[in-house]
Amino acid sequence: SKTPSLQKLAQILARNQIFAPDIRQALQTVENSLSTMNYEAVLAQVKSEIDEETFDRYKLEFSGTILAEASVGAVLRAKFEFPETGRPGEAACKVLKPYAITALKEDLQIIDDVLAYLEKHGDFYQIGETPLVEIFKEIREALSREILVEDERRNLVRAGEYSEQDPKILIPGVYPFSSTNVTCMTFVQGTKITEAFPGQAKERAELARRLSDALTYDVLFSPQDQALFHGDPHAGNVFHVANGGRDPYRIALLDWGISAEFSRRDREQLIQLLLGLTLRDGKRLTNNINVLVDWEPQSAEQRQAMRDRIEKLISEHQGKESFAVLNELITTLAREGYSIRYETTIFIKSQLTISGMLKELDPEFKQDKHTMDRMSGQVMKEFHVRLLKTVYFPAWNSHNYRSMLSNEDVK
């Protein structure tokens, strides 16, 4: 109940379809329905952070219950008035739980010791050479970012600016009465995306397509040089907005404690990996593997060894979705001592979490097929520009398109 790192692992695994439904249901209670704090303690924390003058100026009134609680934060719902206009408003105030920082440092140290012990006795526990401590660094780094409240607020502001022109996505705005450890933001009236449109298969299928577009396609094929993405999209952080107005499928992305940016070059290489898996092209995968791990081949033999390793993995995991295979590849390479790339790893693991939500919304949804269909549609939009560039043969291999695919890739 007070082990943030295990709670985070539970959130990541909660929608994974490899687990039985009762296991998933149990894990899902950790998404934002924990109960480790009482209301009075959370309210006292808020009042210790926000001074009386601010309370009076905004006429802050808090509801009498905790709205939600996750691994490092608890949320209270509040009513207030804008001082300039007297207009009423509602806020969700997220409080960093007092024990979160000390508990996190302590339980990560304990878990590191356990993992080191398991590695030392790997044969007995049948884990082979798996570098558990190295792999767990991803969770440690992600959690350490979650307790940096000011960073989360900056992420929220950046995400709001980044998505400003996208009416399909709602990012909560940050209110000025936030404090050091309390972030007060727009209250989102909605429900977990997996609970939207109960019993309405058609609407849930459309919401699945919208979710995949927002958190996969629009990130990979963003027109911006740096694509910002949500690094922790479990169902407790992804809401279907109630009363979305003209758009009944609007999605709200909450809790931006974990986010990252994807450069165009890295996304171009990741798309080449996805294409390589689709075409079962070991050479293409090998040529772009450095977007997953730090790797600079020193010889033709090393390059061939990497290609053999990749082709073996493709063969062993035939039929799995692409992001699941890439996750297996990252794990395999980490096990062999390669240093993994944080941004790419977080994105790929976020896709596994998203995949579980997509299956709950629409059991027939195929994430790979939808992404490839969208990619094909983008290529068709580029047809006339591509035709012009074929006049100049040196531009045949240019990736300077929204799809980031060259004419050779398309062929």
Provide a brief overview of the structure:
With 411 residues, this protein is an alpha+beta fold. 51% of the residues lie in helices and 13% in strands.
Account of the protein in words:
By secondary structure, this protein is of the alpha+beta class. Helices cover 51% and strands 13% of the residues. It has 16 helices and 10 strands. It has helices at 4-13, 21-32, 39-49, 52-58, 100-120, 132-146, 149-162, 201-220, 264-279, 282-287, 300-316, 322-335, 342-361, 367-381, 383-389, 407-410; strands spanning 61-69, 73-81, 88-96, 169-170, 182-186, 190-192, 226-230, 238-241, 251-253, 259-263. Strands 1-2-3-5 form a 4-stranded antiparallel beta sheet. Strands 4-9-8-6 form a 4-stranded mixed beta sheet, covered by helices on one side. The protein has a two-stranded antiparallel ribbon with strand order 7-10. Strand 1 and strand 2 (73-81) form a beta hairpin. Helix 1 (4-13) crosses helix 2. The longest helix has 21 residues, at 100-120. 35% of the residues are buried. The mean pLDDT is 88.
Number of helices: 16
In terms of DSSP E residues, the strand content is 5-15%
Distance N to C terminus: 54 Å
Strand order of the largest sheet: 1-2-3-5
Residue runs with pLDDT of under 50 for 5 or more positions: none
Q: Report mean pLDDT, rounded to a whole number.
A: 88
Radius of gyration: 23 Å
Please summarize the sheet with the most strands. 4 strands, antiparallel
Which structural class fits the helix and strand makeup? alpha+beta
Strands, total number: 10
Helix fraction bin: 40-55%
Specify the overall morphology. Answer: globular
Question: What is the H/E string?
Answer: HHHHEEEHHHEEEHEEEEHHHHHHHH
